[in-house]
Write a structure and sequence with these properties.
The complex is a heterotrimer of chains A (272), B (256) and C (357).
Chain A: H1 9-29, H2 31-46, H3 57-69, H4 72-104, H5 106-120, H6 124-135, H7 139-163, H8 167-175, H9 180-217, H10 223-232, H11 236-271
Helix pairs in contact in A: 3-11, 4-5, 4-7, 4-9, 4-10, 6-7, 7-9, 8-9, 9-10, 9-11, 10-11
Chain B: H1 2-32, H2 43-55, H3 59-90, H4 92-106, H5 114-121, H6 125-149, H7 153-161, H8 166-203, H9 210-219, H10 223-255
Helix pairs in contact in B: 2-10, 3-4, 3-6, 3-8, 5-6, 6-8, 8-9, 8-10, 9-10
Chain C: H1 2-26, E1 29-35, H2 50-56, H3 59-63, E2 70-76, H4 80-89, E3 95-99, H5 100-108, E4 113-118, E5 126-130, E6 145-148, H6 153-164, E7 173-176, H7 179-187, E8 193-196, H8 198-205, E9 209-214, E10 226-231, H9 232-237, H10 239-257, H11 262-269, H12 276-282, H13 288-292, H14 298-313, H15 330-338
Parallel strand pairs in C: 1-2, 1-3, 6-7, 6-8
Antiparallel strand pairs in C: 3-10, 4-10, 5-8, 5-9
Helix pairs in contact in C: 2-10, 4-5, 8-12, 10-15
The chains are: A mainly alpha (272), B mainly alpha (256), C alpha/beta (357).
């Protein structure tokens, strides 16, 4: 990447233009939300919208502030995050292992994949009542469901990622007399990384959705619990705040994944 | 050729090994009372429950209700998704103004919308259909947008050179080139709409449906009923996946 | 070919238009009635209130039997009172049986409803604990896992009971479960205790849990109240139909308050799936007239006002509720006049003492 000083004057101006346009774009991105919020505020103030449909935006803001100040919001968010991180980690490790095993060994794939696919057809929500009967409604249930939610996309994408590595590359490894472990580390895994990341992205989204589902059904704490509580008591402001926090965390996780993918890709390129 | 067929047979045999083993273990557990029947009922109990539900309790009706909800919601979400995605991708204003908000809203987990939809649409079928439509809408709109945005520049140039009107540009250039991505979106939409159908039956008012059956089974501690319900959920999921794959292939063939 | 097709389409359209025209001429009306509970296994029946009698004995259907254009549609809600509020908010319900807290919550949120008659007032609340939970008294509930259905009148009564023993809702881990979910969770010991009513008595009778406390016999201010609520827009548009609906509920209340009817009443309520002995226990020691009275007397009004104040105090509702214009005894009084039931039920004053007639 050329440094600022090395660029010609013309290129500098173009960069500045691009920079300003970028800023403008991010500002214009806020236009619609601001307009909608203004409309919302107007509708509540003028009474166009009955308050049971949508409470005043200032009210929502106030409740949000109260919930942050009392630490309540942080507590529930932390509980949900802890569950997701734990469950996702388990699901990801299992998924990667399973995907790699199926990808590397055709024999293993033959034995395991059909059964795996059969179980994967059952939506995560469907597993919840079954598992409730087996393990109750405690933390275990939530972790298992979240892990299952992450497992399927990660396994399938890891598998297809490994299979997608062109045979030629593996041939090169053989020619260079790589050990199995070296082949895996230097050729197969790097080639599979884009797919693996897609799997991880889907897995995380699905894990987060599964968490909300489980917390909606049976929980005494967490963001899903806040949603239920708000719904039962007709506190739509609480519901909206919980939704916003869920969205923000989802967004942060996505961005985090993107960042780490870029980082790994760059590291991969430099390695080569 | 012979080697290929025999490899296929070998693979099929291998694939059946694990399921058969599980089935045998299950049957043995039932016969020999290895596991608490509350956790693992015998196979014949599950079959008996299935028979009972089909004959006495209108299981097919419940399944039909779920499927109808699913299809209705999916079709609405699909139509809205393609239209929305196209509109936003094709107009520069839509792109800049609307996409960021859409990207923000799509971060909110699907199930988190349930309380709001419940308050806004009440307890009747419409709330459930709206939820299913939302579930299908998001991936389809997103993929339509991505697909159109990725339209090769040369094709767009051709459209401009031939002085196509906007409608012609959409139908002759943008949509055809976006078709593979849209097809993926539709595949995802089908999967998510089935998930949403079950979610709607869990969390929005009581009504006919397989989701309700599974919940009822859980409340009654009837593991056999829960298993019947879960197996049906899986079968429908499988069928929908196949359908989606076939539709995807068909769309791609039509485009070529 | 094209012409034949077009003419067929035209004929079809004409048929549809005439059909809809004839339908419109008769103005069929569907009265949507809701009930903030549901029977065992999601059976569309309930128990323990005169509104449940109205449903099981088809009092509403009989009242409108001679009107072919008027249909009655009952909906039972697993989500109880809060779900009924969602129905009212969307104009999907015209009348509903609903408990005090959810009605107050609805009112506080601007739902335009009217309280037409009492039903299921003065219901007791029960506290059941899981087997081997070691909980002997309410004070032992501190820090334990309790199931409550939030937003229902049971929730408010539970909070009052906890407060009387020095506990706050936050002192326990509350899991929001509906009636069936509570039964399942108690049986599998996923929770330590639960507040509820007949389903808990049933569970104890089966030996799967222990009932350690009931508000029956305790301070009458712990009692739960409920009533038949009507959507104001419907009442304004169809006052005569509203009157007839109230008439039907009053007739059901009258039949439910007649002591000789007790066995038949319990049998009728059994349609919800709760065994008759459990219902007997639920009504033990209370006269039918006491529990099934539809009167909007001073006791009821003062109770509701107190519930409103308490709810605000507990943070369950967040603004003051205007109750002055909410009670609408006009239809009830007209029914009582016409059926000469003036002295059938005992009215109570705000101090809890019977009012001299």
């Amino acid at each position: 990447m050329a440094t600022y000083l090395e660029l010609s004057g013309h290129e500098n101006i173009t960069n500045w233009r691009r920079f300003l346009r970028g800023r403008f774009f991010s500002l214009s991105a806020l236009l619609l939300p601001m307009f909608l919020i203004a409309l919302w505020w107007l509708a509540s103030a003028r009474g166009w919208l009955p308050e049971q449909i949508l409470p005043e935006p200032t009210y929502v803001l106030q409740t949000g502030r109260d919930m942050i100040a009392s630490g309540e919001l942080l507590y529930h968010a932390a509980v949900s995050l802890r569950r997701v991180i734990f469950g996702f980690a388990i699901g990801a490790v299992l998924g990667l292992a399973l995907g790699i095993a199926m990808g590397l060994s055709a024999r293993f794939e033959d034995y395991v994949k059909p059964t795996f696919l059969a179980f994967a057809q059952i939506p995560t929500l469907g597993w919840i009542p079954l598992l409730m009967l087996l393990v109750g409604i405690e933390e275990t249930l939530k972790i298992i469901i979240i892990a299952k939610g992450a497992l399927v996309p990660i396994t399938l994408n890891t598998f297809s990622g490994i299979r997608s590595v062109p045979g030629k590359y593996v041939e090169v490894g053989k020619a260079l007399r790589f050990s199995r472990w070296q082949t895996l580390r230097l050729i197969v895994l790097p080639g599979a990384i884009p797919s693996i990341f897609t799997g991880i992205r889907y897995g995380l989204t699905h894990a987060w959705t599964s968490l909300v589902g489980v917390e909606l059904l049976a929980s005494s704490e967490g963001l899903g619990y806040l949603l239920v509580w708000g719904r039962q008591m007709f506190w739509l402001d609480t519901v909206i705040i919980a939704m916003i926090v869920i969205g923000l965390i989802g967004f942060a996780m996505d961005k985090g994944l993107n960042g780490s993918e870029v980082f790994i890709q760059r590291w991969k390129k430099e390695g080569l | 050729m012979a080697a290929e067929t025999s490899t296929r047979l070998v693979r099929i045999r291998r694939g059946l090994a694990l399921p058969l083993l599980l089935l045998v273990a299950w049957e043995a557990s039932g016969r020999l009372d290895l596991m608490d029947p509350r956790f693992l009922p015998a196979i014949e109990d599950v079959v008996r429950t299935a028979k009972r539900e089909i004959i006495d309790n209108g299981l097919t009706g419940q399944l039909g209700a779920s499927l109808l909800r699913n299809i209705a919601g999916f079709l609405i979400g699909c139509a809205l998704g393609v239209s929305f995605g196209t509109l936003v991708a094709v107009t520069r204003l839509g792109d800049r103004l609307i996409m960021p908000t859409f990207n923000g809203l799509k971060q909110i987990s699907l199930l988190a919308w349930i309380p709001l939809i419940s308050v806004w649409f009440g307890f009747a079928e419409q709330a459930k259909v709206v939820f299913v439509a939302l579930a299908a809408f998001i991936p389809i709109a997103l993929n339509t947008y991505d697909g159109i945005k990725d339209a090769p520049a040369e094709l767009v140039e051709v459209g401009r050179a031939l002085r196509f009107r906007p409608w012609q540009r959409i139908t002759k250039i943008y949509l055809p080139s976006a078709l593979p991505t849209i097809a993926t979106g539709i595949h995802l939409g089908l999967i998510y709409s089935w998930l949403a159908t079950i979610g709607a039956e869990y969390f929005l008012a009581v009504g006919p449906g397989i989701g309700g059956l599974v919940i009822a089974g859980r409340e009654r501690f009837d593991m056999a009923l829960v298993m019947v319900g879960v197996i049906i959920l899986g079968l429908v999921g499988f069928a929908l996946n196949r359908l989606a794959g076939a539709a995807e292939a068909r769309l791609l063939r039509w485009r070529a | 070919m094209k012409r034949a097709f077009l003419s067929r389409v035209a004929a079809g359209l004409a048929l549809m238009l005439t059909a809809s025209a004839t339908v419109r001429a008769e103005e069929p009306l569907v009265i949507h009635v809701g009930y903030a509970a549901i029977g065992v296994d999601n059976r569309p029946y309930a128990e323990g209130t005169s509104a449940a009698t109205a449903r099981a004995g088809e009092f509403l259907e009989k009242e409108f039997a001679k009107d072919p254009n008027i249909k009655i549609e009952w909906t039972f809600f697993k989500g109880a009172g809060p779900a009924v509020n969602e129905g009212f908010a969307n104009d999907q319900l015209d009348f509903a049986y609903q408990g005090d807290l959810p009605s107050l919550i609805g009112r506080a949120n601007g739902l335009k409803t009217k309280y037409l008659l009492a039903s299921g007032a003065r219901k007791p609340l029960y506290l059941a604990v899981a087997k081997d939970s070691g909980i002997k008294s309410i004070a032992d509930l501190k820090g334990r896992k309790i199931a409550l259905q939030r937003g229902t009148n049971g929730h408010l009564a539970a909070v009052k009971v906890l407060e009387a023993h020095g506990l706050k809702e936050r002192d326990a881990q509350v899991v929001n479960l509906d009636s069936a979910g509570t039964v399942a969770a108690l049986t599998s010991k996923d929770i330590d205790a639960a507040f509820g009513d007949t389903q808990l008595i049933n569970l104890a009778a089966k030996g799967a849990a222990d009932v350690i406390y009931t508000t029956k016999g305790d301070d009458p201010r712990f009692g739960r109240n409920a009533g038949v609520i009507g959507r104001q827009a419907f009442i304004d548009a169809h006052p005569e139909i509203t009157q007839r609906v109230v008439d039907a509920f009053v007739k059901a209340a009258q039949w439910s308050s007649d002591e000789p009817n007790r066995p038949a009443l319990l049998e009728l309520w059994h349609k919800s799936g709760t065994p008759v002995p459990i219902l007997e226990e639920y009504f033990k020691g209370d006269t039918l007239a006491y529990r099934n009275s539809p009167l909007i007397d001073d006791l009821l009004v003062s109770q509701y006002k107190e519930q409103a104040a308490k709810s605000k105090e507990f943070g369950l509702i967040r603004r003051d509720v205007d109750l002055e214009s909410w009670f609408e005894p006009r239809y009830l009084n007209s029914a009582i006049e016409r059926f000469s039931l003036q002295n059938f039920w005992q009215a109570y004053g705000a101090d809890g003492k019977p009012v001299a007639s």
